[in-house]
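Example 3.2
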Amino acid sequence: MTSSEPRAGDTPGANELGLARLVAFAAPALPVAAFQLPFVILVPKYYVENIGLSFIAVGAIITIVRLIDAFLDPFVGYYADHTRPRSGRRRTWFGLAAIPTTIGAFFVFNPFPDVGPDQTAFWVAWFFVWSMMLSVGYTALSLSHLSWGAEISPSYYGRNRIFAAREVFAVVGTLVATALPFVMSRLGWHGDEPVLITLSIMVAISLPLLALITVFTVPEPPHVAHHHLNFIDGLKNLFKNEYFVRLLGAYALANMGNGVPATLLLYYVRDYVHGNEETQRFFLLLYFLFGVLSTPLWLWLAKRTSKHRAWSFAMLTACAGFIWSPFAGFHVLGDNAVWAFGIIMILAGMSVGADLMLPVSMQADVIDVDTARTGEQHTGFYFASWALANKIALSVALGVGFVLLGIVGYDKGDHSRDTLSPVQVQVVTNPPVEGAIAVTPTEPVKREPDKAKKKHSSKNGDSDKPVKQTPLATWTLVFLYCVVPILLKLAAVRLVWNFPIGPAEQAQLRAQIEAHRRAEREESEGRPA
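Structure, written as tokens:
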């Protein structure tokens, strides 16, 4: 543990948002999370089955969009830091980014033109343009939102409160998206189309409204700027910040520790636990529900100790769950394996509340190091680099899991459509960033609604049946699902257990930043500093 006093950096009162403004700031995360889950699960399936695009075309478009989006991350972050609108950098970028995000979500979820399936070029262009608008808009929206949150509160613990509120709304949005198909089905609306249309209307109404409330009610602190750094110098300073590199490494390891089991969850539940599709959905519901319910626990523990210790205990809690996974197999517990695995998912879900909130709050403290050194805030640039590293880590996790299973000859059965893409893994591990089960058909179906519905309704329980594996394949799956996440999370704990920025250190950094601000004001007013 650091030598800092736990409450040294706690400066409540006028510097912190009241409850009403806190809710106003965090609320837009709900509709954003609500569209992310269907965008990576239902939308590709719908464009293949109902619109008539080929599986290859949809996969290629999604890959291209994600690559472009990842490439743009640092540039969006840099220019969001270095624009000077009168209304405020974060407020302006957030408000403007809500526009393409809303438009993109509405049109990609609601392909309403009466154009036949033979017009492939039209539908490829439609899917690409609106997906691109949605992805780039979301990138700008999320980066400005995270940066704004990091700058609203100057205190060590106040930042926990900001990001906890944001992530609670995000997870609730994910729960809404998860529950909507069940609700629509109960009301007599079956299939993906009514769900997507309902979501498009919900997002089109709620996101602009909540974004406007945020823009007009939440304050933006004055920008700290002593001198301007160009893109290359900013990038160099970013990697000279040893605290950022250390935290980024821990965050990447922890996310890989979440990503590897996320990629294998469907196979593990089906072939090792012998759970069906309903139990898979139930496990995901437990995961997100306890992610919300555990948030007050980690906030309390962070205040009693520190952010890095609370996050470490959360990761150890997840390890305590994963370590029992080999004993939750059907061959060990029979029908009780489902219940035992449910407890494991609760422990994993409890840790996700800390995974979403505390590292981001620590990132805000790490950015203070750079601000104190350079005299300029590069919050957006830091969060953009953070997002890019996260995407890379999750892609690595996906690749490692499936490559090793392929080497040992794991039999996927008839369910290659049930694999999670890197984007879907991000939803499971970082909602809204970022729990999803994909159902992507291997054979495209042309846009014939009656036939598509018939195909959908003809499914039986075969996809729920476990596939018999060789002992080598089974134990490779167990090793990847149980042992690898524990090793990765323990490595992350090793990096952050004695993280050098605690409340007292962060308070010192804020004092240096305030000194920069006073010097800048006095210089601009013509007085000696």
